[in-house]
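In this supplementary section we document a worked example of the pipeline. Step one takes a protein sequence of length 65 as its only input; no multiple sequence alignment statistics are reported here. Step two produces a three-dimensional model, which step three serialises into structure tokens for compact storage. The input and output of this example are shown verbatim.
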Amino acid sequence: MWLYQKKLEYPVNIKCTNPRLAKFIISQYGGPDGEIGAALRYLSQRVSMPDQKSKAILNDIGTEE
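The serialised model returned by step three reads:
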């Protein structure tokens, strides 16, 4: 089974939050349950996969969405 570890590729330091801008950006991706949001989650998770086979699977799923 998959072990999902939520980690960023680069460290991020957020000094000022903007909920309105965040809501707007999420709406542009079709919302949290939209197809583009799902595709981007699959494609971003492939970066942290330990082997090439699981990276390839997530790449295939992400491009199908």
